């Protein structure tokens, strides 16, 4: 018999740890997005860690800006950024306040509110593709910059909440290079995913974007 996911919200202490401890521990956890149309729940299956001042791939590597301000804490808040002029991506801030580290949510399985997610992701051929990739995940959940800074550990009323779910055992966790990260940051094996899960996105090495002529 398969155990039901634990619906207990994760406390702030969960996020107040080194990013490389938090990232793999997020696998199997449940993210709940509350919307006026109803809730959408997502089981996390793939994440990437970004370690601020120690990480050339991090948005915070060169210091604090208006864009990355949320990354500097407190832990348990949501950092949302806009990329390529088209897509939003969602991160969870972790580590001690003042030290900018965060976990990018790369992929997951929609376990509740599938119909709502389908309406936002009309191009998805199958439900396993609804949140297969960070931009798709944010789109399926209706996450944009308006949710930047949201406290996912708020006692009640937050539009984004992390639940305990069913943590994944170490034998099920895989790790490797982060997707699309260039330069010195590209060598870090800080992408974590659940082995053999069909919702995990494919790995792609960094490819320079060509300017249109």
List keywords for this structure.
213 residues; alpha+beta; nine-stranded antiparallel beta sheet; 4 helices; 12% helix; globular; DNA repair; glycosidase
Task: Describe this protein's structure.
The protein is α+β, with helices and mostly antiparallel strands and about 210 residues long. It has helices spanning about 10-15, 20-25, 115-120, 135-140; strands spanning about 5-10, 30-35, 40-50, 80-85, 85-95, 100-110, 160-165, 175, 190-195. A hairpin with a 2-residue loop joins strand 2 and strand 3. The termini are far apart. The relative contact order is 0.23. The mean pLDDT is about 95.
The average pLDDT score comes to 93
Secondary-structure element pattern, one letter each: EHHEEEEEHHEEE
Helix/strand/pairing category: alpha+beta
Distance between the termini: 58 Å
- DSSP summary: helix tally: 4
Report the oligomer.
single chain
Give helix % range. 10-25%
């Amino acid at each position: 018999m398969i155990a039901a996911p634990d619906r207990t919200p994760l406390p702030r202490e969960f996020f107040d740890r080194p990013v490389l401890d938090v990232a793999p521990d997020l696998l199997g956890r449940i993210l709940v997005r509350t919307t006026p149309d109803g809730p959408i729940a997502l089981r996390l299956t793939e994440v990437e860690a970004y370690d601020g001042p120690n990480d050339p791939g991090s948005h915070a590597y060169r210091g604090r800006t208006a864009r990355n301000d949320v990354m500097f804490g407190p832990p348990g808040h949501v950092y949302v950024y806009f990329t390529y002029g088209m897509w939003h991506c969602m991160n969870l801030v972790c580590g001690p306040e003042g030290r900018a580290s965060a976990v990018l949510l790369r992929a997951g399985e929609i376990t509740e509110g599938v119909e709502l997610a389908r309406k936002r992701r009309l191009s998805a051929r199958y439900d396993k593709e609804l949140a297969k990739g960070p931009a798709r995940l944010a789109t399926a959940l209706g996450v944009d910059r308006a949710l930047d800074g949201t406290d996912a550990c708020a006692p009640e009323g937050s539009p984004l909440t992390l639940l305990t779910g069913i943590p994944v055992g170490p034998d099920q966790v895989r790790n490797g290079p982060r997707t699309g990260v260039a330069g010195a940051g590209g060598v870090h094996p800080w992408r974590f995913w659940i082995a053999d899960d069909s919702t995990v996105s494919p790995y792609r090495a960094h490819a320079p974007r060509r300017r249109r002529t």
